[in-house]
Every structure is written in C-alpha cells, then in structure tokens.
C-alpha cells in the first residue's frame, strides 16, 4: 500500500502556524511577484477566490471581506515542509518527497488491518507537533492514494486519513 500525505492549503497553513488569530478567517498567499493567488484558506475559497487568480481581479472582494494577504515566504514554507517530511520518515523508512507539500509513503510491510488508524496517528502527530493540517490517502497505487487524500479534504469524518482498497473502490466481480 502507498500513502500520499498532502498538506492542506499549505502556504496559508504555514502562515497560520505563526499567526493563530488567522484561524477561521479568509487568508491568501501570493506568487513570487505578488501577482497571483497561489494558496487559499477554505474561508477564502468560499468567497469565490480562485487558485492562480490575479490579485487585481479580487482587490475589492479582499477589502470587503477583510481577507489577510501574504507575500510568499519560501524560507518559512521550506522549513515547515522539511519538518513534515522528517516526521513522515519516523513513521516509515520509505518516503518519496513529491513536492514542497506532498510525499508518498511506502506502507508495503504494514498490516493493512491497522493501516487506517496508523494513518490517523500520522495526521494527528503532524498537526500537533508542527501545526499543519494534512490529508493522508492510502491505497494500492499512487493515483488512488491521491484520490483518497482528496476525499479526506472533502469529508471531515475521515479524520484526515482514508484507506482505499480495491475491494472498497470496485464492486466485487
């Protein structure tokens, strides 16, 4: 089995680690030249702010709803990313860093019966120790693990971790 750990709204989540008063409020982070929005909180998404949307197109919306706006801080994001990746390596010896906010985890030698609970403990540990919310999809392939991680973001009852097996995804033949 393979897991995909994906940080939720990563750049915004990083900003919130150091400014907890931003929790529950609309927040966006901007591209290198502050031209486009590259990370949005759930609250900002609900306002209709789109990914990669030019800042000038939503200036009035940002002002009207008091959206917190941050220039990208790649030093901060890289540091928190490294902490997350180091934490993942304590749970599995085989971690493949995919991007600044995603990593694949090899769970082949783990007991599938306890893997979902193990996944939830990874999610809780990262949130507690680093302050970043993550979604962890676990499945037989990288593609299905990505789908499972997306499900975690959409369904809070999954508690950040979803184990998808072929039996759960495909009807029995």
What keywords describe this structure?
single chain, 173 residues, alpha/beta, Alpha-Beta Plaits, MutS, DNA mismatch repair protein, domain I, 2 domains, five-stranded mixed beta sheet, three-stranded mixed beta sheet, 7 helices, 43% helix, elongated, disordered C terminus
Rg measurement, Å: 17 Å
CATH fold node name of the largest domain:
Alpha-Beta Plaits
* Beta-strand content estimate: 15-25%
- The CATH superfamily of the largest domain turns out to be Reverse transcriptase/Diguanylate cyclase domain
Mean pLDDT: 92
| SS summary, helix count | 7
Number of strands: 8
Q: Give the CATH architecture of the largest domain.
A: 2-Layer Sandwich
* Top-tier CATH class of the largest domain: Alpha Beta
Can you summarize the main beta sheet? 5 strands, mixed
Strand order of the largest sheet: 5-6-1-7-8
Envelope shape: elongated
SSE ordering: EHEEHHEHEEHEHEH
- The class by helix and strand makeup works out as alpha/beta
């Amino acid at each position: 089995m393979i897991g995909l750990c994906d940080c939720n709204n990563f750049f915004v989540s990083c900003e919130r680690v150091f400014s907890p008063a931003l929790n529950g409020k609309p927040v966006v982070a901007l591209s290198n030249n502050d031209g486009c929005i590259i990370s949005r909180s759930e609250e900002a998404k609900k306002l209709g702010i789109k990914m990669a949307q030019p800042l000038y197109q939503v200036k009035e919306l940002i002002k009207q709803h008091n959206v917190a706006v941050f220039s990208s801080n790649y030093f901060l994001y890289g540091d928190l990313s490294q902490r997350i990746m180091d934490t993942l390596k304590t749970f599995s010896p085989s971690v493949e860093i995919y991007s600044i906010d995603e990593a694949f985890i090899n769970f082949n030698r783990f007991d599938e019966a306890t893997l979902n609970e193990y996944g939830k403990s990874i999610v809780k540990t990262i949130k507690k120790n680093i302050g970043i919310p993550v979604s962890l999809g676990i499945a037989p392939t990288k593609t299905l693990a990505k789908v499972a991680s997306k499900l975690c973001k959409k369904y809070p009852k999954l508690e950040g971790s979803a184990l998808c097996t072929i039996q759960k995804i495909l009807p029995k033949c």
